[in-house]
Amino acid sequence: MKINAKDVASGAFLILLAAIGLWLNMDHTLGTARRMGPGYMPMLVFWVQLGLGALVLVLGFFSGPDPMERWKGIDWTMLIASIVVGTLVWQISPMFGEFFSSTYNGIGLGMLVGFLVICYAVGWRLLGFICAAMCIFALLLEKGGLMLAVAATILISAMAEPEHRSRPLGVLGLMIFLLAMCWWIFIKQLDIRVAVWPMQY
Amino acid sequence: MDIIGNLAHGFAVAFSFQNLLFALIGALIGTAIGVLPGIGPVATISLLLPITFGQPATTAIIMLAGIYYGAQYGGSTTAILLNLPGEISSVVTTLEGYKMARNGRAGAALATSALGSFFAGSVATVVVAASGPLLTSIALSFGPADYFSLMLLGLIISAVLAQGSIIKSIGMVVLGVALGLVGTDVQTGQQRFTFGIPELSDGISFVALAMGMFGIAEIVLNLERPEARSVLKTKVDSLWLTKEEWKRATPSVLRGTVVGSILGILPGGGASLASFGSYMMERKMSKGRHLFGQGAIEGVAGPEAANNAAAQTSFIPLLTLGIPANAVMALMVGALIIQGIQPGPRMVEAQPDLFWGLIASMWIGNVMLLIINLPMIGMWVKLLQVPYKFLYPAILVFCCIGSYSVNNNVFDVYSTVVFAVLGYMFNKLKMEPAPLLIGFVLGPMMEEHLRRAMLLSRGDITVFIERPISASMLAIAAVALLAMMLPNLRKGKEAALSG
Amino acid sequence: MLPRRAWLAGGAVIAALPAITRAETPWPAQPIRLVVPFAPGGTTDLAARLVAQGLGARLGQPVIVENKPGAGSTLGAAQVAQAAPDGLTLVVSNIASHAIAPSLYRDLRYHPLRDFTHVALLIETPSVFVANPQFAPRGLGEVVRLSREQPRGLDVASSGSGSSNHLLIVQFGQVTGARVNHVPYRGAGPAMTDVIADVVPMMSDSLPSASGHLRGGAVRGMAVASAARHPGFPALPTFREQGVDLVSNSWFGISGPAGLPPAVIGRLNREINAVLAEPATQRRFAELGGLVSPLSPAAYAEFIAGEVARWAPIVQASGAKVE
Known about the structure:
Chain B is mostly helical.
């Protein structure tokens, strides 16, 4: 048997999501084909997805070989660690201040910490830093203002590129250039509605 | 109706200095914002709306229309250069356009897009002028049952967008439909799969989904393969189309124009089918179909033409019925109302200056966009020569601001992150996101039309077969499905036997 | 484009001053954010922008419109409910966010009365029943008769489940005993398309969005749900004239977070009502199909309380429910 590991995993993923969907859909009235309730279409969609997922999974056992990239022990460890730490930080975040108990700031902090934790594993580093950079943007934007948020985003995203770590001046130049550009485009020209400097509102 | 005379009148209106100036300004602004990921024409027009208060109605509409087309052009640029689709039509452009850019043919892809759009736009303008009112009756002859069958057909053929296994890509279409279920059920107002998050009650944001799965995931993948980045940096061939590329692109543009012009008229979501309907057609019919997936110019030329043609003909319902076909059109209605003009069926007679002036300015706007965009191709391609280590933080920042500004909500930034992780995973598992996005857009429309059709027919399923439009769509869908499944199943069986 | 730089400069100076000096500067020392909880381009958005312009001129500080759409306009309202009560953050309160949502959404993040300071009512726009020109009945009485003859009721479209237009259909059924089959759409535009195409014979719409089609003759007006005939459509009879005791207006006004200083409330109400009294505003609002209705802050709050109480049983009866 030549196993197509990617297809098997894809099939499993489709099946998993479909199963979750079907379970959540139990809340919704099904109705009948003639008079469909809100749950009818989801039911159809998830069953079809389940079937297709199963088909992809089964065919995946024969259509290979197409192995997955090898995961090291540390990749697993840090994936779990990041989820655990991230969730924990999210849950205790209201203790850090009122800011984190409003809207999505608490879960945002959890995501940021989680993505930074996962960067300890080399295999996750690129994805981790890029996602963390976006999270810090969302966290800082409303209270810290656009300038601070953009600067922090550039700083964290730059860590994904080894060349930047040895030459921090390039990052600084890029930061100044992008800050000026963002100010010119988004504030001066488009006038989008955000705070520009810290504590503006 | 004296079309020539009316058009001449329209050109006389549009050629006034003020109107030309604002058409140019609109086209420039539109191009600029179209290039920025996430900042779409809706956001820009709403920001500019107050400026139009002081302008004459015709000038205001001409400028807003310029922004709309400009944004379409600009959006294709980002899709081709950075794999960042801003709306459903540019998802298709990324498929072949971004591959072309990676092959060093970014200039040719951009030129094709500009020229194809210009041609399609010109033809569609004539269509709107000559037969707008006539075509309205076609638009009105589509009932919910017909739209349902059209959407189903669209969903089935969208599986063709993927390169790999058909079953897997149908799986992705269905997954997209599933994601589209999130939000408020139109029929009952009940919240589905929103987990109590009010931001999800209007559904998952398309911009967050597309930007995360395509743009952000692509950044991570590019960083992972340093060798892929150097391709972008070093290999930039001539900016213009080769003779062979001209020959391949021309018939695609023609076909795309026809497909787009027809679908654009349908107010119930036809325009969103235009570009990938054309892509599907090119992939099956064009001479270069074996090159699809590696950067086939037909896959840029056809969809771009179709998209622009649809963008123009989607004005028909607005101009003849006063009904906006999409969010941009709704803003145009708003601008008209501010001016004291009630859009409605009498607009053509009551406001001839506005109607014919707008049609003439559509064409003028297209000329301007060509003039603006062709010389800029060199500049855009140079952008790719910026070292990637400096380019990617910039893309990331623009994506962050773009996703935030759609709803002025940080929730959308976090959703983009989630979809970036998903998109990265999909890439590793060879699950293709393009069919997913099509399913995401068409799925909710299909459900809405299906349930409305059933509600109106009192649960009688035969409406789908009794109506000739619906029946023929379903027949085509069935044939397409069979044609796709058969070779695949055979291959699967062979693999099973030999394995 | 807009005087953003002036804002920045002003903001920086104000932030630098100690709190005490700030208290002495007369309100408003900074630009005011007016949150419109709808996507740009709709009637509410347009009217809010018109008022914002006039109000900004009178207050000497720009009033900046910020669109925060989502969740039936409750997202924008929730945001303002949590803002600081300094009079610099206001919201366009409306029938959806402040009258219907409290009964429609089970876990709404705000209380329509306790979490807000209601400042002024801007505009009321009546609902209308419009029909395809081919539709046989001429008046509401014939509509009721026809609906009873049809085994599964008469199809009537609306802009969405839980909208005030939908609730008018429900009320119409309750009051007259008509058998109606509600056909919801995603917005008024698609619903109007299907009425013009005769997919659905009749719809309940708000007058502003239907007025162009009414004037153009694409649809025929059946009845308007205002107390008296609308000046823009003198030939269109009211529900009451046709023996159906229904008045249903959609409305919106301006509110701020709970606890606005009384001085700010008074000033805002005065200036808003002055803007509403300007002939230019009156004309624009009339073109939008609405009626300008100035109220005192207390009267507006009372009005909202009445609306909340009034819609609760109708939402119950409609069957629309959002968890």
